[in-house]
Structures are given as structure tokens and as C-alpha cells.
């Protein structure tokens, strides 16, 4: 198998879905699980995407944590040259 394509850990879209449905506690749990999995498997792009998703979910209840997550995602995006993700992080949390 020469090529592998991934959309990251399934926990991220599940977390986004739960957030859309209004269950922020379950959404947070999914997104935190996704962070752990993406970090463990060495997937920095998907780790940063999960950070942005979690930042979005906790933004109203925990603004300092949301800013910290967004800043970390921006740093990862910049370090790895993920230009589109970097722009998204800048727009979403400026």
C-alpha cells in the first residue's frame, strides 16, 4: 500500500455533530478523544483541526481555553505549512 488518505479520527466529526445538535458535553468528550488519538498517531494536521473544533465548542463557556486551543492550532499550522488551516485559525479566533 503506497498511498494512504485519512480524514483523521472519527471523533472530530462526531464532536462537531454533537455540537450542532446542542450536546456540548458529549461534543467536548468526542473532540478531546480526537485530540488524544491524533496526537498518539502523529497526525498534526488533524490534531490542529480537532483543537479548532474544541475551541469552537468551548468558546462561550471557557474563553481562555478556547483562545489557548486556537493559538496552539495556529502554531501547528504555521510550523507545518498548513496555509489554509492557518488562515482558518486566524479568521475564526481573531
**Largest sheet composition:** none
Backbone shape: globular
Low-confidence stretches: none
How many discrete domains? 1
Arithmetic mean of pLDDT: 89
What is the share of helical residues? over 70%
How many alpha or pi helices?
Answer: 5
Task: Bin the strand percentage.
Answer: under 5%
The radius of gyration is 13 Å
User: Oligomer, anyone?
Assistant: single chain
DSSP, total strands = 0
Q: Would you list the SSEs in sequence order as H and E?
A: HHHHH
In terms of structural class, how would the helical and strand content be classed? mainly alpha
C-alpha termini separation: 41 Å
In summary, what is this structure?
The chain is mainly α and 94 residues long. The protein has one domain.
Provide an overview of this structure:
The protein has helices at 11-21, 24-40, 44-58, 63-80, 83-92. The radius of gyration is 13 Å and the shape is globular. It has one domain (11-92). It is mainly alpha-helical. The protein is built from 5 helices and no strands. Helix 1 (11-21) runs antiparallel to helix 2, helix 1 (11-21) packs parallel to helix 3 (44-58) and helix 4 (63-80) packs antiparallel against helix 5.
Amino acid at each position: 500500500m503506497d498511498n494512504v488518505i485519512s480524514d483523521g479520527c472519527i471523533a472530530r466529526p462526531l464532536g462537531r455533530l454533537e455540537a450542532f445538535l446542542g450536546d456540548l458535553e458529549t461534543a467536548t468528550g468526542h473532540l478531546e478523544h480526537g485530540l488524544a488519538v491524533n496526537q498518539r498517531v502523529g497526525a498534526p494536521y488533524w490534531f490542529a483541526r480537532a483543537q479548532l473544533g474544541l475551541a469552537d465548542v468551548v468558546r462561550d463557556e471557557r474563553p481562555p481555553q478556547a483562545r489557548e486551543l486556537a493559538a496552539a492550532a495556529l502554531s501547528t499550522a504555521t510550523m507545518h505549512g498548513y496555509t489554509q488551516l492557518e488562515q482558518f485559525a486566524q479568521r475564526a479566533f481573531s
